[in-house]
Every structure is written in C-alpha cells, then in structure tokens.
Amino acid sequence: MEHxxxxxxxxxxxxxxxxxxxxxxxxNYIHRLIEQGKLSSxxxxxxxxxxxxxxxxxYLSKFGKVTSIEYDEFCCEFASKKTGLEIINGSIxxxxxxxxxxxxVCAFDVVEHVEDDQLAVKELKRxxxxxxxxxxxxxxxxxxxxxxxxxxxxxxxxxxxxxNLLFDTINDGNKVFDTYFNSLLFLPIYFFRKVSNFLKLxxxxxxxxxxxxxxxPGVLNRILYKIMYFESSVINRKIRFPFGVSILYNWKKF
Length: 254
Known about the structure:
Elements: H1 3-15, H2 17-35, E1 45-49, H3 55-60, E2 65-70, H4 73-83, E3 87-89, E4 102-108, H5 117-126, E5 128-139, H6 147-151, H7 160-167, E6 173-181, H8 186-199, H9 201-204, H10 219-229, H11 231-235, E7 246-253
Parallel strand pairs: 1-2, 1-4, 2-3, 4-5
Antiparallel strand pairs: 5-7, 6-7
C-alpha cells in the first residue's frame, strides 16, 4: 500500500461504517469468549499481527496486554506517532516470538496480503499457547474481486472451506467457530463491485481507489454501520451466515 494511503486509512478505521462495525463484531465476539470462560479475563497476552494504523490494537487493549506487529516500516512509524503504541516492524511469515507465547493471536484482514498464506497461518499457530486461540478475518469470494483488492495488495479472497484447509494441515488444534459476515449487505456490495469493475470507478477516484472512499461520514454511513453491526447479535448466538463479504474464523490450539 502507498504511504499516503495509511494516513487515509487511519481516519477510515475510526469513522467508516465497515471498520467501525467490524470493530464492534470482533470486540463483542472476544467479550463472549471471556464470558464463556474460554479466555481469561485477567493478564491476557494478545498478539495483533498486521495492526496497520493501529485502531485494532487500541480496542484489543480492552481485553489485555497487546503486542502489535506491522510489516510496513513507514506504517509502523506513522501509527506509533499517531497513537503512542509500540509497534514492532516484522512479518507474519517470520514472527519474532517464541513458540506458545500468546493467549489470543489476531490477524484481521491480513492473511490475504501474503502469497504464502499457509506459512502465515503456520506462524500464527506456532506462537499461540496450547489451549489458546487464533482469531482472523479475511475477505470472502473471488466473485467480489475488484480494484479495491488490487489497491490493497490482496492475493486472493477466500471461501470458508479454503480457510479450513489452511488450518487443518496437521492435527494441532480445532476450529471453534467460523462464519461469513457483512452478509446483509452482500447483494448491494456485489452489484456495486460489478458496476465499479465495469466502469473502472476505482481507477478514477482521487485517493487510494478503494471501496472505502465510496461513502463518507453522514446519514448513509450510520445506516450501513447499523445494518452490518446488527450481525454481531446473530454471530454471538453461534449462528453462521451462509455467505458474506468477509469471513470470521476462530481456532483453538491443542
């Protein structure tokens, strides 16, 4: 991603309906794991891989001590100055931590940026403590591929069965829960991207060219947030959506 885009994404993470709704869905899901006694409510050691401009590390800090790592050196420096967070410059495919180090390892929309996604998942699993969790999100369905994915340097979009295959290479853990999300808006987003691809709208935008530029804070932004955030109540009842724009995947290490 271009350096100027990180400045743009710093604001988007804190204001755009998709980021804010994802934050709520993930925060509520983690809170539910704690309520159920699956995660400790004290001294939780959390690794946030690919923290980007830093908002995800800020809200994860509600649950424990967060260690943040980001691949792009400029983004590390920019996010550290903006947030005051200590961010390690490093790669998901070569995490600078010992085996069995963390209670919760998070990678929110990160794995799709890595060509060797199998190695990325292997590293996430390696640094997770026995009996602890990996929680990731990734974009779903190659039919939704657009200029947004190109600009964000994605290698692919996934189906749940493909994520299962990434995690099921050896018998070292099991899936806790998986679901698609951002499902209620799937059809309008699908058609928006098809039209955007046909008209090459992404290339015509002045900023990053991502879909996130299409909506600005305002009434529509709040409505879309509420629609997507509503899915949190469904997910926390362990009800799985059969399709969606993104995937949430939770895995536990033996």
